[in-house]
């Protein structure tokens, strides 16, 4: 099978025809692991969905663990008199937990993507994020845009994790809504 040359062109909905270089299953869904050709990078294999979800889970556990550790330290080092430790813990947690749970992962993802093209979860699973136009790692603007889409989904949508599942709905490049917003693609390295 020959890889798809960049840029990919969309498939019209009712009459789904395979895009040259892509294998579509009987239901018209892209077969995971399909190769594409990107500028600079050359041929690259799209990241399998399971690996993407597992990488997101690893990153979520990592950032949540750091946030809970910080909140625990803040509670332990609180400057209020320790007359009622439960009240102090509740006050600090209520003030810091939600902002840190939202902004911590956002900052982590922006820095990791802009500096190295992958978060720790993606690195562990051999995945990287690339700019679809250039084939290089995303710049700070793309990292901000991609992460902002994830943050906005968690803040404003009742089901914020739908954005994490959005690559399932893209039969071409398995791009999530956050990938489309930043014009990025996730590949296996």
Walk me through the structure.
The chain has 189 residues and is an alpha+beta fold. The chain has one domain (35-188). Helices cover 49% and strands 10% of the residues. Strands 1-2-4-3 form a 4-stranded antiparallel sheet. Strand 1 (35-38) and strand 2 (42-46) form a beta hairpin. The protein is elongated.
What tags apply to this protein structure?
189 residues, alpha+beta, four-stranded antiparallel β-sheet, 6 helices, 4 strands
Short description:
The chain is an alpha+beta fold. It has one domain. Helix content is 49%, strand content 10%.
Largest sheet: 4 strands, antiparallel
Number of helices: 6
User: What fraction of residues sit in β-strands?
Assistant: 5-15%
Low-confidence stretches: 5-22
Order of helices and strands: EEHHHEHHHE
The number of domains is 1
Shape: elongated
In helices, the fraction of residues equals: 40-55%
Structural class: alpha+beta
